[in-house]
Specification:
Chain B: Pfam families: Proton_antipo_M (PF00361). The complex is a heterotrimer. Chain B is an all-alpha fold. Chain B contains 20 helices and two strands. Chain B has a domain of 215 residues. Helix content of chain B is 74%, strand content 1%. Chain C is mostly helical. In chain C, strands 1-2 form a two-stranded antiparallel ribbon. The chains are: A mainly alpha, B mainly alpha, C mainly alpha.
């Protein structure tokens, strides 16, 4: 027997089950049209607008910055854990332990400084404000 | 030479210098974010690129990556995650040269634009990625380098924020790029699944040791997906869709950068992965066919699509974009022509072609940059009669175009000639087919290249133009590229030797 | 003597410099470039004599100057590389030829002072530049050590003849004659080129001399019996030899490619002298002598050479009988005399052929220059019927011309007798065993009579009798520059025979056959290029009538008798105060001879009736089919390009879809081939 037949059968079943459930519920359910059913679901709160809201672009900016420094922490944490043990052992020198991480942090600092200086953390400036600052 | 005494990680110096340059640019911009000292920024970028070039040349001259008595051997870094050999250095040189040219040319081109510092730092960051790619020796580092190249490229294409074409091109580039990256990563995971390794040599060893027995289809699919990733980077059909639009929408120096350096980087990584990780014989037994077949198909389709589409374009930049796709097809011959017991000749030829291409294609795009700087328009008609106002630049353009078409005695002829003879010497039916396609497409390419030459030199101008400015940076870059296109030909002996040696070393 | 040979390239280079000088500065120089040419050819002559002396002292030279292409090539005999070079070969043959060529060129230059400058011609820098280039080409051709280099300069010689024959390009006839000379010789050279390629691809070398030569390679091939391109080795050597012979026949004006030569008389007479005596026409025979070792290996080729030579000798001599123009007579005599040389070469008489080549160079240069002198005397009148009685008015011209005529007719003891007799003797002894050669010999012998006749007809009509026109009554005077070359050449025409008095040597037993010793390696020699090497190669048997001496005396007596008979006939008919035409006696033959056996007519028909329609058909094929295909391809390409362009819709979702579709297509193809889905 070819393996692919089993795989194909699985794919077929996987497709049929949800489709079948939807079809069955479509056949069984009572039809009561109502506007609230079309409203946006906001955990029970009264919805304040549609789903297609425009977010300020600076949310993304903050999110990006957060992501960068979050990952930095992820890398720093295990390094900090093994740091003392590594210093005590003679296998590696201090520069070899400290050097890469210092370089890493320096690169991040340069990035942070640049973002800061270029106004990435300043909130909500209209184009006119940016223009007057320049 | 002092290379001996340096610690191993300095082997990556060409890439590290570029990274440091990018950081320096950020520092410069942090100090005075609101005033753009263009000369300083362009100067720092060009200096960094040239320093990287110098170090790479020095390494090659000192014998890094060469075996034997005077050679210093291949430098292995971080447990084989990176490798600095002749091929890596060769492509670091290509990248550095193109970066330097583009930096110099951008000085004039970007004169009235905002985001100067960002432009240069992104440029250098992308160059860092390409340089790193040349040395990457594991699927992980390859992917990281690939992304380090791609992300700044997306931003660079879209850097003309007020230009709809630029932004649209950037977005398209990004979307196709994301799709291709996804395919590539999937491929990486499949290869890992089949062999249990990410480091290229280790994959080869695993294949030799029959670890992947029974996973032929899986491995094959993985390899094919890796090919997809490289095809995106090198703008090969069918992953080329981003290229015409990105090249057309992007600032012309960036088009030059992407179509030359980025393409070269894509090729080096393809060369390395396929020569190191997937030895033809073992892999062939596993997946039931030679993976060169994929490249044969890609090469033929790519050069045909690129050249045919270029033939009927109205806009110069778009024509060059398609021609760049065509040239990717030529360079793919380097992989298509690999055989179990050789192929260094044809791969060396492909490497040579990429070097020559680095000059002639960059030069051609820089001429377009010059035309955009003058504001003469985008179509062939708009270029009519430019030779009257700017004979030097137009002469250089003639050199670039004829070299791209492969007219003797220019550099482009020789690299194509080597590709052709290399393909013939392999001698299989499919390679003869590839060689035939190369000839037919070159002939066709002469048509549209000479169309541009005709427009510039022979046709009368449609509108009356005033005298055109002669921006120093752009002119210098164009003239230098033209001189190199010509000078490469007496220097072809050493170049071809280096390229073929480098190719032989990895095979 | 290595030092002397290092100046060898200068022999050819001097005239080249003269060419450049005359072309660039001739206009501003006092004699319009003549002096540069005279100096250059004098230098060449001097150096040639030095070479001759060097060879006489036992040295030879064979060296490569410049190697312009080296290639890997698998040739038919298995040599795996080929080199194309420029090199110099100085052996007895080429040293001798160098002296002949440079001497004649020098004298022609001097003569030109009187003939061209003195007559107030315009365009003189062009003339002297042409002469310089001509001399350069011929000297380089003589120096050549390989067939390809020889071919190149052979072609250059042809080009120069084109330029010089058409010197008076404003007339109607000169350009046409120049074109004819160019095209007819080109027709022969076409075969020559194929021959060069054939030899190169067979043996992988084009050298004339040494271990690496194609001659030696051919010898090895014949010895080993190697099959070459599906032929036996001897057959193949014959074929390639005959292909090269095509060039010789064209240049040396042998039947049927002789038609250009009479027309070439349209050029200045000095040019005719140069062409006929030392350069263009001589080039063909020299080439045969140069690669004689190759021909010697093919009896068939030799027989063809001999037969063509003998036939041409007779054929041309008969036509010369009825010509009125003094230069035309000389032109046909040239064709005829080169026929003798070919006959000599063809029967294996290498020495005889070269001997006649040398003697002919002197006396034919003399005759042409003499004719030039006559033309000057006659105010550019060339019709012999309008001359007469010039004997007393121009004694120097007369006596020297007479010496040349006696040599041409082959009257003892003038040089022409000795060499022509040797040619005929060699032909006779081979002919006694070979019927074909005997036929060639018979024709050659018969031609002797005609030669004697037309030569003296020319002499008597021109110089004897009463002056028939006013100009003949009061001739123009000639200067020293005309007389000097005539005297030098007159002396040579008388004495050059001393070089090889073979009959005398045989009768008396004295060792005075110097030329034979010269060519046989008594002095300097190159291995394999000597007379006895050749003689061993030639497969002809020789026979004698009773004994060698008797045969020789018989042959010599016969030819001398015929020559004298011809001269006497001319004397009877034309050496009268008022000679008349005797054409009526010839009857219908006169028309045939007058029309040169209708050779031109059939060749013109070949060109117009056969080649032209063919060319038209080819043109139509090119215009319709070929161009149609080309245009179709370009249309199809552009159409295809237009379609391909449309894949790029501009909508990014389409791209993604196409990308994935393309990827899946690739996956299906590869997966299907690789069997991943099983």
């Amino acid at each position: 027997m070819n393996d692919w037949i089993a795989i194909g059968a699985l794919a077929l079943v996987g497709l049929l089950i949800p489709l079948g459930m939807m079809a069955v519920s479509y056949l069984l359910r009572p039809s009561v049209p109502e506007t609230n059913k079309r409203a946006t679901y906001e955990s029970g709160e009264v919805p304040t607008g549609g789903t297609r809201v425009r977010f300020n672009i600076q949310y993304y900016m903050v999110a990006l910055l957060f992501l960068v420094f979050d990952i930095e922490t992820v890398l720093l944490f295990p390094w900090a854990v093994v740091y003392l043990d590594a210093v005590e052992s003679d296998a590696v020198s201090l520069t070899e332990i400290l050097g890469p991480m210092v370089a890493f942090v320096v690169i991040l600092l340069v990035g942070l400084a640049w973002a800061w200086r270029n106004g990435a953390v300043q909130w909500a400036q209209t184009p006119r404000q940016v223009e007057s600052d320049r | 030479m002092a290379v001996f005494d340096l610690p191993g990680w300095t082997g990556l110096a060409p890439a590290l210098i570029l990274a440091a340059t990018a950081l320096a640019l950020f520092v410069v911009d942090s100090i005075s974010p609101r005033s753009a000292n263009r000369a300083l920024l362009a100067g720092v970028s060009a200096t960094g690129a040239l320093a990287s070039l110098a170090v790479a040349v020095w390494f090659i001259a000192a014998g890094v990556g060469q075996g034997g008595i005077d050679g210093l051997g291949v430098i292995d870094l971080f447990d084989g995650q990176f490798v600095v050999d002749a091929m890596a250095l060769y492509f670091m040189i290509v990248v550095a040269v193109v970066t330097a040219l583009v930096s110099v040319a951008s000085y004039d081109y970007m004169a009235d634009h905002t985001y100067q510092a960002e432009y240069y730092s992104l440029l250098i960051l992308a160059a860092t990625g390409m340089s790193t790619m040349a040395a990457a020796n594991s699927l992980v580092t390859i992917f990281i380098a690939l992304e380090l190249t791609s992300l700044p490229s997306y931003a660079l294409v879209a850097i003309l924020k007020d230009n709809r074409g630029s932004v649209e091109a950037g977005l398209k580039y990004f979307l196709i790029g994301a799709l291709s990256s996804a395919i590539f990563v999937y491929g990486v995971s499949l290869v890992y699944g089949a062999t249990g390794h990410l480091q290229l040599d280790a994959i080869a060893v695993a294949l030799e040791e029959d670890v992947a027995d029974g996973f032929g289809g899986l491995l094959g699919l993985g390899i094919l997906m890796l090919i997809g990733g490289f095809a995106f980077k090198t703008a090969s059909v069918p992953f080329h869709f981003w290229a015409p639009e990105a090249y057309e929408g992007a600032p012309a120096p960036i088009s030059a950068f992407l179509s030359s350096a980025s393409k070269a980087a894509g090729f080096v990584i393809a060369f390395r992965v396929f020569t190191t990780a997937f030895p033809l014989e073992v892999t062939g037994e596993l997946i039931g066919l030679d993976w060169t077949l994929a490249f044969v198909i890609l090469a033929i389709v790519t050069m045909t699509v690129g050249n045919f589409a270029a033939a009927t374009q109205d806009k110069v930049k778009r024509m060059l974009a398609y021609s760049s796709i065509g040239h990717a097809g030529y360079a793919l011959i380097g992989l298509a022509g690999l055989t179990v017991d050789g192929g260094e000749l044809v791969m060396g030829a492909a490497m040579m072609h990429l070097l020559v291409y680095g000059f002639m294609n960059t030069g051609a795009f820089l001429f377009v940059a010059l035309a955009e700087y003058w504001g003469v328009g985008r179509t062939f008609e708009d270029y009519n009669g430019l030779a009257n106002q700017a004979p030097v630049a137009c002469f250089a353009l003639g050199i670039f175009l004829f070299s791209l078409a492969g007219i003797p005695p220019l550099g482009g002829f020789w690299s194509k000639y080597f590709l052709f003879t290399g393909a013939i010497s392999v001698g299989t039916t499919s390679m003869l087919l590839v060689a035939a396609a190369l000839v037919v497409n070159s002939a066709l390419s002469l048509y549209y290249y000479s169309r541009l030459v005709k427009a510039v030199w022979i046709e009368e101008s449609v509108v009356d133009r005033d005298t055109l400015a002669q921006p120093t940076g752009l002119y210098a870059a164009i003239v230098f590229a033209a001189v190199m296109t010509v000078v490469l030909l007496p220097a072809f002996g050493p170049v071809s030797e280096t390229a073929i040696d480098a190719a032989a070393a990895v095979i | 003597m290595e030092g002397a040979f290092s100046y060898a390239p200068a022999i050819a280079a001097f005239p080249l410099v003269a060419f450049v000088v005359a072309l660039a500065f001739g206009k501003y120089m006092p004699k319009k470039g003549a002096l540069a040419g005279i100096l250059a050819t004098a230098g060449s002559l001097l150096l040639s004599v030095v070479m001759l002396v060097a060879v006489a002292s036992g040295e030879v030279y064979h060296g490569t100057i410049y190697e312009w292409a080296v290639g890997d090539a698998l040739t038919e005999v298995g040599a795996d590389g080929i080199e194309f070079t420029f090199g110099i070969l100085i052996d007895p043959l080429s040293a001798l030829m160098l002296v002949i060529v440079s001497l004649v060129a020098f004298l022609v230059h001097v003569f030109s002072l009187g003939y061209m400058n003195g007559e107030g011609e315009t365009g003189l820098p062009r003339y002297y530049a042409g002469l310089g280039l001509f001399t350069f080409s011929m000297l380089s051709f003589v120096l050549a050590d390989n067939l390809l280099m020889a071919f190149m300069f052979f072609e250059l010689v042809g080009l120069c003849s084109f330029l010089l024959i058409g010197f008076w390009f404003r007339t109607r006839s000169a350009p046409s004659a120049a074109k004819k000379a160019f095209l007819v010789t080109r027709f022969g050279d076409y075969f020559f080129l194929i021959g060069v390629v054939a030899i190169a691809s067979t043996f992988g070398t084009l050298q004339f001399a040494g271990e690496e030569s194609f001659v030696a390679a051919a010898e090895t091939a014949i010895a080993d019996g190697t099959t070459l391109f599906g032929f036996g080795p001897e057959t193949w050597v014959t074929i390639t030899g005959l292909l090269v012979l095509g060039g010789v026949i064209g240049k040396s004006a042998q039947f049927p490619l002789h038609t250009w030569l009479p027309d070439a008389m349209e050029g200045p007479t000095t040019v005719s002298a140069l062409i006929h005596a030392a350069t263009m026409v001589a080039a063909g025979v020299y080439l045969v002598a140069r690669m004689f070792g190759y021909y010697a290996q093919s009896p068939t080729a030799l027989s063809i050479i001999a037969f063509v030579g003998g036939f041409t000798a007779l054929f041309a001599a008969t036509m010369g009988v009825v010509k009125d123009d003094i230069k035309q007579v000389l032109a046909y005599s040239t064709i005829s005399q080169y026929g003798y040389m070919m006959l000599g070469m063809g029967v294996g008489g290498y020495v005889a052929g070269v001997f006649h080549l040398m003697n002919h160079a002197f006396f034919k240069a003399l005759l042409f220059l003499g004719a030039g002198s006559v033309i000057v005397l006659m105010h550019h009148e060339q019709d012999m019927w309008k001359m007469g009685g010039l004997k007393d008015k121009a004694p120097v011209t007369y006596w020297t011309f007479l010496a040349g005529a006696l040599a041409l007719a082959g009257i003892v003891p003038f040089s022409g007798f000795w060499s022509k007799d040797e040619v005929l003797y060699d032909a006779l002894i081979v002919g006694l065993e070979q019927p074909v050669i005997l036929a060639a010999y018979a024709m050659g012998l018969l031609a002797v009579f005609f030669t004697g006749f037309y030569t003296f007809r020319m002499v008597f009509l021109t110089f004897h009798g009463e002056p028939r026109t006013d100009t003949a009554e009061n001739p123009h005077s000639v200067g020293w520059s005309i007389k000097f070359p005539l005297v030098v050449l007159g002396a040579l025409a008388l004495l050059a025979g001393v070089a090889n008095l073979a009959p005398v040597a045989k009768l008396t037993g004295m060792d005075i056959t110097y030329l034979e010793f010269w060519l046989d390696g008594e002095y300097g020699y190159v291995e394999g290029l000597t007379y006895h090497d050749y003689h061993e190669l030639v497969a002809f048997e020789e026979g004698y009538i009773s004994s060698e001496t008797v045969t020789m005396l018989l042959g010599a007596g016969l030819s001398l008798g015929l020559a004298v008979a011809g001269a006497v006939t001319a004397h009877v008919l034309y050496n009268v105060p008022e000679p008349t035409r005797h054409t009526a006696k010839l009857g219908g033959a006169y028309d045939v001879l007058r029309s040169n056996y209708y050779q031109d007519e059939y060749q013109v028909w070949l060109a117009e009736g056969l080649t032209l329609p063919l060319a038209r058909a080819a043109d139509r094929f090119d215009q319709t089919v070929i161009d149609g295909v080309v245009n179709g391809v370009s249309t199809a390409s552009l159409f295809g390009g237009d379609r391909v362009k449309r894949i790029q819709t501009g909508i990014v979702t389409n791209y993604a879809a196409l990308l994935v579709a393309g990827f899946i297509a690739l996956l299906l193809v590869l997966g299907f081939i690789g069997g991943w889905f099983l």
